[in-house]
Queue: 2 jobs
Job 1
Amino acid sequence: MSERPEHKPALAGKATTEGSGIRLEPLPEGHLLHVMGAFDGDTLAESLTAAGLAKSAIQRAGYQQWYVTGDEILPPAQIALLADHLRGKGFVCDQSHGRIRIALSGFRALELLSQGTAVDLDPAAFPVGHSAVTLFGHISVQLTRTHATRFEFAALRSFAENLYDMLEHAALASA
Amino acid sequence: MASLISCPHCGVRPREEFTIRGDASLTRPAADAGGDAWYEYIYLRDNPRGRHKEYWHHSSGCRRWLIVERDTVTHAVHTVCDAALAKLGGAA
């Protein structure tokens, strides 16, 4: 047995679940960077472009905090490059190992989400690109609307399996 | 207690997302203030009727400390502001 722990995806055993009007899938464990700093989202977007991360998504995660997410695994040098661009203004903390992303889509996704969270998900209050840190049941999650009927969760790694089971159960129960 | 708190950063959220700390009007005594002043600061609390300012932490949201002014009789929440920004003199 190897001395060093091997990286095992938290939702490795989970398959994509599809019901009528609902689709639940674990997303690749790519990158999730926690960025904190006294600037706005536009400044962060410029720094991401400068660091070659223009394709990554930016999600607001509270006052002067963001998550930068994407499907690709980033080499440490690229994360260091972003940190260099933000030096003096903000900080980057790599949380790729710590948070797991799950996608929920379909025309009945909204109905399922309303069972677990109290955030107003009406498109007028929660448009595409909007993000909120909230509770889903008793689990703290970052919830983002990526398309009109597609949402993304980011949850702490140790809660990911539990959250996935809960969503799967709800998706199949309402199918 | 009202079931909804309007967080200045996140919008209207259920109170299950928040954790209460208590009275926001307490002033920490000087280090050499003496036993009585410290005893009062640490242990003695009023049970006010009416408007009351409290510290609440948005623990399952933006994780910011807030000052919530609420009415202990009617359960109405009057004002909510960011505690750190209020201390710095800025608006939340």
Job 2
Amino acid sequence: MGNVFPPGFAALEPFADWAVRGERARYAKRVSSTMEELQAFYDVAYPLLRQNTEYLENLSLDDIGDQDKHLLWAFCALVTVAFPVEAWGQPRVPDSGPSSIDAVIEPAV
Amino acid sequence: MAHFPKPAEGSWTEHFKIDTGPVSYADSISPEFYEQERDAIFRRTWLNVGRVEQLPRKGSYFTKELDAARASVVVVRGSDGEVRAFHNVCRHRGNKLVWDDYPREETKGTCRAFTCKYHAWRYDLEGKLTFVQQESEFFDMDKSKYGLMQVQTEVWEGFVFVNLDPENSTPLKAYLGKFAQGIDGYPFHRLTRVHKYRAEIGSNWKLFIDAFAEFYHAPILHAGQYEAGEAAKIKKYGYEALAYDVDGPHSMVSSWGGIAPPKEKAMVKPIERVLRSGLFGPWDAPDIGMTTEELPPAINPTRSEVWGMDSFVFFPNFMLLIWRPNWVLTYHYWPTSYNTHIFEGTCYFVPPKNGFERLQQELAAVTFKEYGLQDGNTLEATQTMLESRTVDQFPLCDQEVLLRHLHTTAQSYVHDHRQRGSTASAS
């Protein structure tokens, strides 16, 4: 079985289940995860994002391959996960109670 | 502390001649008042229902549920390229004409004609009735009399508006007034990358506009969005707008730039540092064909060097936010009852050129959502306590001038509508 992510992102392979298409699905995964799970993904993904800015800047979105698509989805998941890890200390937004806001239109990648 | 100058009267509220006394919010907790708003406001004013990019070719259509106006409309680009809107009602037996599995859910697509699910009456893209099942069974059927009911439709800068009142003869641009005139020429057509969010909110529609028509709450309610040390500093600094303005029922607030990019990187969270993006959008503005200084005159009206964004409130329920880093956010508030509404927040970006820009836009959109979740839940708390009627007089400060203007405007629409009704019944 091939790698989910492009060469150079092997450290992300154990977190391949975070390469989820769509903000709505990524947010659902975030709120159904524990802080330990979110922190573990963040600890691996954040340094990879920081070190690979140039790779991403050179990544064309036209005719994007599956591995790069998975990489972008995983980093989009990191964006979502950054809120609990860096700000909230919990998977849900504090004081958001029963309220929800759902993505209804979003980019294909 | 006075970070920015105010009008000669000493306050924005007095400058615009709006009452400075406490407000009651009775207009947000009364089922009777809401019923009057439906006729006085939502069936009489220009409502933004979408953008022309949603209708890319002949036959493209989308439906919009206007519960407050007791209407559903189908907006379509005709075979002549014109954008039109029709009441979404079949002329035969009154079935909703265009819908998918769930009658109350909005839909979109492309078609050559609209065919009713019930008995297959068919209408062309211009609304003309073209086919009647077993036509010979009808009684002297003149199909030309049974076209779809057309709704006034106009487009301003790519924003499609409808007006359900056939007697309202005010053209859209005249209604939108000086703010729209001063925004003309902004390159909205370049901002075609869309992230749209939707929420069902347990509050009156005006209370959510209140939340987004002032930024005075941001350092408090959203303090957790900042680094801890910075949150304390920002709270101490407080919030003042660069300027407020009012034009008829509409209003605007012009705001300073805050944290995009921040003076010190320590101000923002690590994800913002690495992606150079956040609530204020991606820090590196994409090319939209004009510089900040060249933006149309209603945008950054004070021509402040520290300008960050403008927020226009087009009455009743359309808000347009134009951000310094060349992106746009719109808010719509669609009432479904006196204490519920559907909120839509839509981010418009220049299409990203690469993976990094894609992630910058994701962070801006998701940050907006995280803030919105905090606002949405606060509103439900506000609505229930207002409805308790424990307190019925609430003071508002000068940074909340647009709130006063909104509630005063809604009340005057309802008052004028009542007056017309009583005049009509007396004559």
